[in-house]
Design a protein that fits this description.
mainly alpha
């Protein structure tokens, strides 16, 4: 089973990937992503876009868990 990452892990991994490109601008241009979308995501003004996640080798997965007996 793959290790589940939290949002902080995702931000860290995205920032590490951006650092490999030298700047947010270079990262965005290389992957065909708007620079503003990268900036907005890193400043938590919007969720990390799927294109940014993909460029960083990530994907968003939503799951649900039961809490206690009886389903409530």
């Amino acid at each position: 089973m793959k290790r589940r990452l939290d949002l902080l892990d995702a931000y860290r991994i995205v920032r590490e990937k951006i650092k490999e490109y030298g700047s947010q601008r270079n990262f965005a241009q290389t992957h065909g992503i708007r620079e503003q979308d990268v900036s907005d995501a890193l400043c938590d003004r919007r969720p990390i876009p799927p294109a940014v996640l993909k460029a960083a080798g990530l994907r968003r997965v939503t799951y649900y868990e039961r809490i206690g007996e009886g389903g409530a």
